[in-house]
Amino acid sequence: MGPVLAMAWGGDGHLATGGWGSARLPPLVRVSADGCFRPGLADEAWQGAYVPALAWAPGGELLFGLERADAPGRLMLLGEQGGPVRSFGNGEAFTCDDPGARPTVRAVHCSGDGTMLVGGRFDARHAVRCPGLVRMDMDGLVDTTFNAGLDHGGTVVGIHPLDDGSIIVHA
Description:
3-stranded antiparallel sheet, mainly beta
């Protein structure tokens, strides 16, 4: 793996790292508590890709952004065994209003209530307007009642929900 861009500890003692892939390691690696690589996350289709953001979901799934030159702005959810969660709609892209802009996923957060927050540079997902920050359920459906009020054309690179329900966003 090239430079590491994101890391997250799993409740089971595993570490997930995301970054630039290399000839020897994919851009997403799961390491067990004893330091061994856990199989199931490597995929040759990820060559030339990088993972800029990742987070563990309460059920042991791994949510992450996946960027490739030919497929920007992808959001993926892998199950505990490393395979894609079929109900999620893996690989569906975010979109930007500006046809020259590349959508990106730069921040993800999974909540204990079965929702996730995703930040980056985008304007919509599934034709639902959500500039820069979106809340979704664990099936990948956009929560249309959530409006972050962002319309700045920037990129959300950090998300930190607070206990009172508010969200600190780094853009």
